[in-house]
Amino acid sequence: MAEPTPAVTRQSLAAAALRVLERDGLAGLSMRKVAAEVGVRAASLYWHVRNKEELLDLLNDALIADAEIPPREGSWREQFLEYGRRHRALLLARRDAAKVVAGRLAPGPHTLAVLEDQLDRLRAAGFGDADAAMASYLLSAYVQGFVLQEQSPLSAAEAAGASRGEAARAAGETFRTLPGDTYPNLVALADDLTDPDMNTRFEFGLQRLADGLAALLPQGGTASGGPS
Amino acid sequence: MAEPTPAVTRQSLAAAALRVLERDGLAGLSMRKVAAEVGVRAASLYWHVRNKEELLDLLNDALIADAEIPPREGSWREQFLEYGRRHRALLLARRDAAKVVAGRLAPGPHTLAVLEDQLDRLRAAGFGDADAAMASYLLSAYVQGFVLQEQSPLSAAEAAGASRGEAARAAGETFRTLPGDTYPNLVALADDLTDPDMNTRFEFGLQRLADGLAALLPQGGTASGGPS
DNA sequence: AGCAGCCCCTAACATCGTTAGGGGCCGGTC
DNA sequence: GACCGGCCCCTAACGATGTTAGGGGCTGCT
Questions:
Q1: Residue A26 to residues A29, A202, B67, B84: CA-CA distances in angstroms?
Q2: Least buried of A46, A54, B81, B210, by fewest C-beta within 10 Å?
Q3: Does domain B10-65 bear CATH number 1.10.10.60?
Q4: What is the mean pLDDT of the segment spanning A12-26?
Q5: What CATH class has B76-154+194-214?
Q6: Residue range A207-216: average pLDDT?
C-alpha cells in the first residue's frame, strides 16, 4: 500500500489525516497514526505543522474541499435550500466530519470559495450586505448544530450495536414511560420527539429559515407551502 | 478548601467537574483533576461512573441545571425568543459549556424539564404536535451551532492575547486584502462578515426562526419588522 | 465470628502530544 | 574539493492521559 512517499506535503498530510479519520474516527486520530499513514514517524510531522490543532485545520479544509456547489438555477430560495442540504450531506458523508468542523472557523481556501459563492447568490437575490453576511452565518450555524445533534448518541445505547431506528424506539419508550403528571407533553409527544426521520426534521428547519429570510425581501419571496 | 468530603455522590462529582471545567476548560478536564477536587484518587471515580463519557453526561446536565425558564408572559413569539436568548446566555456563561453540550443528547432530569416546558408553550401557541417537537429541536440546534461558531477562534490569532474586537479587525483585514477578482463579495462584505457584534448576529437568526415558525400558524402571528 | 457489600487505594498499561538533539542529503559558495 | 546552511527525517524521552487489576479496610447483617 504505502509506497516510499516521495515527499510529505501539507496536502498529503491532510489527505492522510482524512484517511485516518475515516478509519478510526476523530477520537482515534493521533499524530502517530497520521505519520504512519504518510510513511514517517510522529515527530517529523512537526516540521510541516505547528500543532495537532493546525493539522486539524488542514483536515477541516480538506473536508470542505469536496463540497459541490449547487447549480445556479431556480429561485434564490431553492438555491438556498440546496446549499443547506449539500452542506449537511457533506458533513454526514465523512465520519465525524461535523465534530471536526465544529468550532473551527479558520477558513482555508475551499471554505472561502464556498462562502464567496454563497454571498454572491444572496446579494443577487436582493439581500442587503449585512443581511447577506448574517444569512450565510445563520445557515452554517444551523446546519452544524443540526448535524452535531443528529450524530450524537441518543442515550447510553450508543455504539453498542443498536441501530438508529432501534435507539429511537428505545428513546421513545423512555419518554412514554415518564411520570405523566410532571411531563405530560413529553409523554404525549414521545413519538414526535424521537421520530428517526432526520431528513424531514432537517428540512423543516431549513424551510423555516428560508421563510424567515424571505420575509426580509421587499416582494417577500414566494410562500413556503407551495404545491409539489 | 477541600474538607474531608463525607461522601462522593454523582452529584458531588458533577459539581466538582463543573469547577474543574471553569478553571481549566474542557481540554484540561481530566479524571485525575476531578478526583482531586472531591478528595479522592482517579481510579475511585470508576466506582461511581462507568466512563469519562458518563462523567461528561453528568456535567452536561449540571450545566443545564441553572437554566432559568423565562416568565410565561407576552406572545408565544416573545417567549420563544427569550428561550433562545437564555439558552445562549447559559452556554456563554460557563467556560466551554457549548463544547460540552455539543453532541450530547443524553437528557438528564434538568434537560427534560426545560424541554417539557418548551413544548408546553409551543402547543399552547397553536403548533401541532410534530411541529412543536421539530421547532424545539430547531431552536436548540441553532443556538448550539451559533455559540459553537461564536466561541471558536477567528483564525490563528486565538488565545494569544488578541481581544475579540482585535481579532475581528484582523480577520476583516484578511478578507479585505483578498484578490478582488476571485473574491469580490468577500472583499466587499469584509466588514459585515467580521462584525464582532455577536448579539445582533444571534438576534438576526433568532428573528428569522421566529418568522419562519409564525408562518406555520393559521393566523400567521404578528410580523417581525414592527417598530420600536 | 464471619460474610457481603461498599468505597477507596496503589500500580501499572498503553497511548497520547510534544520537545530536544542528532544526522544524513542536497544545493550553492569559496 | 571542502565547507556550509537549509531541509527533512530520525531516536529518545518527558509528562499526562483514560482505564483496569487486584487489594484492603470499613460497616452492618447474620
A1: 5, 24, 31, 30
A2: A46
A3: yes
A4: 95
A5: mainly alpha
A6: 96
Please report the pLDDT score of residue B29 as a whole number.
97
Q: Tell me whether residue B216 is exposed, middle or buried, using C-beta atoms within 10 angstroms of its C-beta: 0 to 12, 13 to 18, 19 or more.
A: buried
Is the pLDDT score of A32 beyond 70?
yes
Domain ranges for chain A, please list them: 10-65, 76-154+194-214
Give the other-Cβ count within 10 Å of A190's Cβ: 20
Stretches where chain B sits below pLDDT 50 are: 1-5, 224-228
User: What is the pLDDT at residue A4?
Assistant: 41
Question: Rounded to the nearest 5 degrees, what angle is found at the Cα of B90, between the Cα atoms of B88 and B91?
Answer: 65
**CB atoms B137 and A205 under 8 Å:** yes
Among chain B residues 35-74, those with CB within 7 Å of any atom of strand D: 42-43, 46, 51-53
| The C-alpha cell that represents B192 in the structure block | 459585515
Cβ–Cβ under 8 Å, residues A223 and B215? yes
What type of residue is B28?
Answer: G
What distance in Å separates residue A112's CA from the closest CA in chain B? 8
Rounded Cα distance, B137 and B118, in Å: 10
Sort out which chain A residues have CB atoms less than 8 A from B112's CB and list them: 178, 183, 186
